Amino acid sequence: YRRHSSLRFSKMPPKAQAEKLTPIVQAEYAKSARAACKKCGNSIAKGSLRLGVASKAAGGFDMTRWYHQQCFKADITAAESIKGFSLLKVSDQEALKTLVAEFGKMLENSLIADTESHDDEDTHLKGEMCVNDQGNPKKPKLSTHNDGDILNNFSLSELNSRYKDAILPSKWKTFQTVIVLGEDDGLKASEKIAAFDFDGCLVKTSVKRVGADAWSLQYPSVPEKLQSYHNKGYKLVIFTNESNIDRWKNSRQKAVDSKVGRLEGFIKRVEVPIQVFIACGIEGTGDLFRKPKPGMWRLMEQHFNSGISADMEQSFYVGDAAGRVNDHSDADIGFAK
């Protein structure tokens, strides 16, 4: 990532493999409810005990993956060796001692697949889980189909105006688990792509607030920066994960209206045409389009850019989830690779 005014930028480099280092286990009380458990995919409540696996990712920065206490599986020789153990409540210390006693396998073999590293040239770290494009046979929940097959067989006739039981506004369509705003007034295809995450990058949002108006600009300079890139011939694209749309089965329309409404309000505010891709798949299911997997990018380049290939030297992606300490995930830096 490199800084440019108030925004973080990352060129899209070739695929990189994370270093194989022994992870460090730590415990703390969640400072917010933004982080999702890497095992079950559900949010970790603010103030609740969470366990994290910290390790070095590609690039040398610290990366921590968080789990609910009941979802965490590892054989640790002593609970006292867990970073932050002495700062916990006595009851939680006792609970961790019990947890430590229940598992007898080595840490590398008992953690879920996203803490493993592989040296096979066909298997590399992709953000949240270490799996290849065919899925990891040790994780039956992961997708086993090839994303290339799905994208190669793409047809405009497959686009739908509904996402499951939720109705989409005009111009918005769905394909598989992605909601797409493929056309916008003034939007033009380009070999130069200026791509961005949405929440925590372009705008400020909160998990405690729902609704089309529940957002504000991340920085006052955002509209000016986007207008500048538009004037330079870049096509502006937003790639954003929103698993609540899939997760809120009884309130899916509310989730769709909230997310899409925010995006439409943002586009109106910055006054530039923007293409949008929303990945609705739930974390941990192996969804082909959920960041850090590159499905949304490939869908855009192959089928929503008028046949023009992106110039990877001039294109870039901006995101806030880089896997650093206090980052809610490493999905953005994984996607940028």
Number of helices: 8
**Architecture of the largest domain, CATH level 2?**
3-Layer(aba) Sandwich
CATH C-level name of the largest domain: Alpha Beta
What's the SSE pattern?
A: EEEEEHHHEEEEEEEHEHHEHEH
Percent in helix: 10-25%
Task: Please report the total strand number as a whole number.
Answer: 15
Radius of gyration: 20 Å
Q: In oligomeric terms, what are we looking at? A: single chain
Shape: elongated
Keywords:
single chain, 337 residues, alpha+beta, first zn-finger domain of poly(adp-ribose) polymerase-1, Rossmann fold, 2 domains, 3-stranded antiparallel β-sheet, 21% helix, zinc, zinc ion binding, ATP-dependent polydeoxyribonucleotide 5'-hydroxyl-kinase activity
Structure description:
With about 325 residues, the chain is of the alpha+beta class. The protein folds into two domains: about 20-115, first zn-finger domain of poly(adp-ribose) polymerase-1 (2-Layer Sandwich), CATH 3.30.1740.10; about 145-335, HAD superfamily/HAD-like (Rossmann fold, 3-Layer(aba) Sandwich). Helix content is about 20%, strand content about 20%. It contains eight helices and 15 strands. It has helices spanning about 90-100, 105-110, 145-150, 220-230, 245, 250-270, 295-305, 330-335, and strands spanning about 1-5, 5-10, 25-30, 50-55, 60-70, 160-165, 165, 170-175, 180, 195, 205, 215, 235-240, 275-280, 315-320. The protein has an eight-stranded mixed β-sheet, sandwiched between helices. A hairpin with a 5-residue loop joins strand 4 (about 50-55) and strand 5. The chain is elongated, with a radius of gyration of 20 Å.
